[in-house]
Amino acid sequence: MAAEAQTQRMALSFNLNGKPTALEVEPHVDLLRLLRETLGLTGAKRSCDLQVCGACTVLVDGRPVSSCTLLAFEVRGRDVVTIEGLRGEGLSGEGAHPLMRSFIDHAGFQCGYCTPGMILAAASLLDEEPSPTEARVREYLDGNICRCTGYKKIVESVLGAAGGEG
Amino acid sequence: MLRPFRLHEPTTVEEATSLLADLGDAARPYAGGTELLLVMKAGVLAYDHLVNVKTVAGLAGIELDAGVLRIGAAVTHRELESSAVLRERFALLASVERRVANVRVRNVGTLGGNLCFAEPHSDPGTALLLYDASVEVAGPSGRRTIAVEALASGPYETALADDELLTRIDVPELPAGMAGAYLKFGYHQRPTLGVGVAVRLSGGARPAIEDVRVALGSVSPRPLRLRDVEDRLRGCSTADAVALASGDAGDLAAAASEAVDDLHGSAEYKRHVTKVYLGRALEQAIEAALAAGPERGA
Fold first, then answer.
1. Which of B86, B97, B171, B294 could be cross-linked to B133 through a Cys-Cys bond (beta carbons 3.0 to 4.6 Å apart)?
2. Residues B73, B96: one domain?
């Protein structure tokens, strides 16, 4: 290992939950580690570490990514939204996001470990497709795993937020 | 946890290949990282240097040029699945791209990276065989073209030299009247099997298979065109062809599959599902070609 490889630091500026954020980061640091260990945002979880389970989901420019396997420097100049920053209508409004309300109303979580990822992925879907079918919700969320296997309630929660029936 | 590495961000193809030539085995091109970073995290592969493909000019974008889709090496699966030209004129490839991994991987991972990583349990490389696709590769001494069929030389191995960079994927349209289906099967995140069949049918009340392409992947160490199976099916009536897929054409496919034992099942099991899915894919390809009717026999 070249010594220089351990000391490369890159300037990183991005919008985090709507706030301009600037810091330095080594290229091998993944976005999840930066969020949890440097920036104190622990809503996204490290679980499978393989991009399979979705517990580390965050939104980059409105689209879900696995922050466990996305190098942090990749978000330079981009908008990152974590569950802590998801608010109101759309991805940047005020107040509790309708999906959060709907997950509570439909009992859409049990242990809660997958919930931030589920809600963020669903927010991205509803942003693109405001009225998805149940099949489309299941297809879009098939990369988000719920260990409690509470998928029925999760799908109902997403459809509830989509239809506004709460 | 990833070990530290040095990141290089070249802006031209020449700069990138020069870096790769200088750094040799210690470096690897890096695009989406959705495959590469996993094996680096696991400690299976270690690189002191990564060369970012996404900062290189000219590797973005999708263009249709005289019937050939030119896909830049840095184009993500999401860009492909949401491309209007793909949906309209490369429907089969679009349907495969829509089902790669999950939405998060598709947002970050690139088709070029997928092909260069040569993970056997993957679909795009198999689907591209149906199109007779090729890739453009740049090296210190210039550019060359490699057929996708010759790109993967084995599991995680390609025909690219250490100092070569995949710059573009060229996908010709299917011939007029040809339509197809791609089926995948599996119970893990990655597919156990992928089978693609494209057919062009003759006109008339009892259509026959004028031309056919068959591709198989995931059960084998690399994607395969099954030309013996194609030869067996070509010229048959559609009804005979479907029967053959469950008979000796299916046996030919199973024998040619190069199936290996792994976590997804035994070779014997994979040969069985190869035969089953060949029949299903052929039936769906025939349906698709019949639905594409107007051009048939023209």
1. B171
2. yes
